[in-house]
């Protein structure tokens, strides 16, 4: 499959907040390609994009982004053969280990169950999440170090992250559906 390299990097960059770093479950650090979407899930937070490819596999997300970033070419050739994804950039060809699609941990639901409220989130949410994730405790010793707190008001969504010494906050204008938990 031939992909526009810059569009692919941009799509993968939007998934980066949902990529785990380290840990023993390798699948959580992978970007997952399904024919109609691309997604990542770090064990607590997932992002699904409507970015269609011909691929059905999982590959190390950060490694793929870094590899694509080494080139200035317009296109990248991605070819899955068994459990290997070949990434062609001009005359250069690199190979990444790939997991079969059935190893994915998170099956994003096509439809939400009855009674479940949802809040549509866009690129502005991903950017706000990136800004709040700048503050990270090392080591994470308290429950609030392991995520971002979300709170809603009538027309805003607030995100907070902390390392116990610093607080990062981002506020978004949002349409909060009636009955959505405050």
Gyration radius from CA atoms, angstroms: 18 Å
Q: Give average pLDDT, whole number.
A: 87
Order of helices and strands: EHEEEEHEEEEHEEE
Biggest sheet strand line-up: 4-3-2-5-9
**Number of helices, counting only DSSP H or I runs of 4 residues or more:** 3
Give the percentage of residues in beta strands. Answer: 25-35%
Question: What form results from the Cα inertia axes?
Answer: globular
Low-confidence stretches are none
Number of strands: 12
Distance between the first and last residues' Cα: 45 Å
Q: Largest beta sheet, briefly?
A: 5 strands, antiparallel
- Binned, the helix content reads 10-25%
Structural class estimated from helices and strands? alpha+beta
Outline of the structure:
This protein is 16% helix and 33% strand.
